[in-house]
Amino acid sequence: MNKSRKLLSGNEAIAIGAYHAGVLVATAYPGTPSTEILENLSKYKGIYAEWSTNEKVAMEVGLGASYAGVRTLVSMKHVGLNVAADPFMAAATTGIHGGLVVISADDPGIHSSQGEQDNRHFAKLARVPMLEPADSQEAYDLIEIAFDLSEKYDTPVLFRITTRVAHSKSVVELDEKRISKERTKHFHHDIGKYVMLPTNARNRVPNMHKRIVELTRYAETTPVNQIIDGDGKIGIISSGVSYEYAREVFPQASFLKLGMTYPLPPELVQKFAGKVKKIFVVEELDPFLEENVKLLGVHVEGKKHLPRFGELNKAAVHHAAVQAGLLDRANPIAEVTLVKNLPGRPPLLCPGCPHSGAFFVLSTIGKRAKVLDSEGRSEEETGLIITGDIGCYTLATYPPLRAMDTTACMGASIGQAIGLEKAGVNSKIAAVIGDSTFMHSGITGIVDAVYNDAKITVIILDNGTTAMTGHQDHPGSGMSAQGTVTEKVDIEKLVRGAGVKDVQVVNSFDVKAVRGAIRSALDNPSLSVVIVRGKCAVINRVRKNPRQIDLSKCNDCGVCVMIGCQAIQKRNDKLYIDSTICMGEECRICEQLCPKKAIGPVSGKPAGE
Amino acid sequence: MDQTKQDILMVGVGGQGIILASDILGEAALEKGLDIKKTDTLGMAQRGGSVTSHLRIGQKVWSPLTSPAEADILLAFEKLEAARWVNYLKPGGLAIINNLAIPPLSISLGSQKYPGDQEILDSFKQRTSRLCLVDGSGKIAHLGDTRTLNIFMLGFLSTFLPLDIDSAAWESCLRKQLPSRILDINLRAFEKGREEALSVNIR
Questions:
Q1: What local confidence, expressed as pLDDT, does residue A184 receive?
Q2: Beta-carbon separation of B81 and A345 below 8 A
Q3: Engineering a disulfide at A478: which of A103, A395, A488, A571 sits with its beta carbon 3.0 to 4.6 angstroms away?
Q4: Quick one: closest CA in A to B118, which residue?
């Protein structure tokens, strides 16, 4: 027996499925909800898996590996494909040699992203086929089909998942056979195919159109697209997790379940239309299926009733079905009157976070603390504008710190700071960026700042890891995705090498040093960089001598609360430190900031005395 | 009618071990040959935010998400989070709430107030009388590790599930899912949860 039943997330299923399909090279940059794909693949022997510097590089490495004839998987979150769009389009043009599958993990509802976008459009844009699994079993099964399609039709395949597929667990029957077909690992020189000079590219483009015609024929007969007959009154066209919701909402309906969502099968759609009275398209985000079905001349409804943004769920599909006159309103169950004004629970920087001290310092500079309202708004400039970036540290936007004025996309902090400066604002400008984000997209920004003489301060928060997505290694961490020691890219040398003259490196847990460095950097009328370095509190497991507040010395000034540390809490109007989560000795940020020296270790004398 | 069908919603605060508890329950259901869909909404859970874990068990499960007014059981590791999710409980469903308050930062900053026990219980009584405020954090205090709360809660929950999983099967499941150095203390926490559940009258 080669079969086994396992409870797997979509991402785990993709990793195992790719392994069983003979993938030899896998590349990615961490990004929720895609991260676990490469994490799982990196554990297999015989596979090369890397955390690439960013998604563009991941795609380029993947393309090179494919040219060498091996099956290659490149995975990223939806916005990662924006970064990788250039080589992705190039791959669509040159075609491949070994199967190349590109995973786009979209995030409807924006659980952990800077925006919402429907990456199904990329398939149409690049004229490549797209597969979409609805659960972990399909993720496992479809990934092998994706590699086969890639090789058969000389094209990268877009494999689109969403948060609810990537991160939901469901039962998978695994087939423990490993495709033994030896890959060639051989590069065939072919200038006409691989060198995209205009003359060659012009010759490749007709192939892209031809393959879509051929793939349309494939879509008609592939078992991944199927009609499930129901009572014939209502027909549902759906794919991905939306299909799961629709199956519950319409237990009697007929279904056209699409595992391949680009290109669509015109004849199959027509056949389905002939079997049912009315068709309702159930899909998340844009009316992608709906519009493409309508182009086939089939009358359907969908987004007239379904929301165009956010995640779907059973209730949302049911609500739309009632609106569309397809279902009767269910007997309503009276909503519970919730407790009034339930406090929210936004995520916060961890107790012992090395970023806390720097953000506290930034929050006190200029008039930020006085002028900004609770929503972080002010007509008047505060004297310090903080452009932010993407990582855990974006959480410093929330009160009490409110120490971030912008966050757009990976690496944007530096470019935005340059733009603000060149536009001539009156305030000083600090760009705040993490180490992994700096490697991803900050380096070109620094080069621009040097080249164009930007009078800004760049603060690089270096905690030695890609913390936000679950502590993946990166070029500055000294460790590869597969756990081998590698050359550390030295951020200090890198920025000095680019031509930054004022570079300081400080210990993130020495608040006085952090304050001194940031103040002197902001006072420098030309470009300055401060590297604030300290281990991520989740990686540094040392918890020693938790701090406590001596209430006989405390005058309730509130400074410690303004750090935004989860361990510092107030119960019955009395401040206390939760000793079960305080990091203690390795942090001491609150102790250094307390004007009354009321904070010290639970037992014994304060450290350093 | 599918007798094994159970929609369970676990809620609490990042760091309380909710995902692990629901993973273990999912594996236990898998051993029974059932279908399972499970999805966690954690945002940035490690950083002290709200965490929810949807676990749906049955002969065939489609949607991974539980729906409002359809959860058979709400297992809350913290009271404020319980209050937030009460609408997901089906009428007459079972609510198990750990009697623990973890005040969010807005409380410490003085801008908001933590709800009182009575207010929270009153909101639940609109849906069900099968309501249990359990002193999980207190009961495990003398085990010496507050991180066993999740397994205590799982033990408590286990006595209410129509899944026909006996003690030995639970133990083997815990053995598979937990590292050996913390296994013993968690087995005790699980047993403690089961004992505690048998002493309450909400069946």
A1: 67
A2: yes
A3: A488
A4: A339
Q: Which DSSP category does B32 fall into?
A: T
Distances (CA, A) of B149 to A58, A246, B193: 41, 37, 9
**CA distances, A332 to each of A13, A336, A438, B90 (Å):** 38, 12, 51, 12
pTM for this entry: 0.96
Cα–Cα distance for residue pair A97/A412, rounded to 1 Å? 35
- Summarised one tens digit per residue, pLDDT across range B135-156 is 999 999 888 888 899 999 999 9
Query: What's the start-to-end Cα distance of chain A, in Å?
Result: 67
Q: Which two tokens stand for residue B142?
A: 């003398």
Q: Same domain for A504 and A367?
A: yes
Q: Which of the 8 DSSP states describes residue A441? A: I
Give per-residue pLDDT as tens, A74-112. 999 999 999 999 999 999 999 999 999 999 999 999 999
Domain boundary among A533, A560, A579: A533
What stretches of A484-558 show up as alpha helix (H) in DSSP?
491-498, 511-523
| Category of B106 on φ-ψ map: left (φ > 0), alpha (ψ -120 to 50) or beta | alpha
The answer to whether A568 faces chain B, any CB pair under 8 Å, is yes
**Do A504 and A520 touch, CB atoms closer than 8 A?**
yes
Hunting for tokens 């621009």 — which residue is that? A448
Quote the minimal CA–CA distance from B172 to chain A in Å: 16
C-alpha–C-alpha distance, residues A606 and A601, integer Å: 6
Question: Has residue A42 got a pLDDT over 80?
Answer: yes
* pLDDT above 50: residue A607: no
pLDDT recorded at residue A580: 86
Instruction: Tell me: pLDDT of A455 over 80.
Output: yes
Sorting pLDDT into bands at 50, 70 and 90, what band is A608?
A: very low
List of residues 6+ apart from A223 with CB closer than 8 A: none
The CATH number of the structural domain formed by B6-198 is 3.40.920.10
Mapping DSSP to helix (H, G, I), strand (E, B) and coil, where does residue A77 land? strand
- Record the tokens describing residue A551, joined without a space: 């209430």
* Residue A442 belongs to domain spanning: 356-533
Centroid of chain to Cα B32: 20
- Ranges assigned E (strand) in A360-494: 384-387, 428-434, 457-462
Q: CA-to-CA distance for A450 and A526, rounded, in angstroms?
A: 10
Question: Structurally, how many domains does chain A consist of?
Answer: 4
Residues 462-481 on A with a CB inside 8 Å of B are 468
CATH at residue A467? 3.40.50.970
Interface of B with A in 53-92 (CB under 8 A): 61-65, 67-69, 80-81, 83-84, 86-87, 90-91
Mean pLDDT calculated for residue range B65-94:
97
- Considering only CB atoms, A112 lies closest to which of B43, B107, B115, namely B43
- Tell me the pLDDT band of A183, cut-offs 50, 70 and 90: low
